[in-house]
Amino acid sequence: MQTVSSVLLAFDRANNNYPLPILYTSVLQKLGMEMDSFATSTGTMTGLT
Hints:
It is built from one helix and no strands. The protein has one helix spanning 20-30. It starts with 19 loop residues before the first helix and ends in a 19-residue tail after the last helix.
């Protein structure tokens, strides 16, 4: 049986609303993939640990 963990990401919608390609790039980098961009992303998210 597999367990699925969920993570809630909360942002201030007025100031820190990141496009999904930037989220995907950040997550893939955290998983160890060496990439600078994904689709239309121009960078990564700040503040992820």
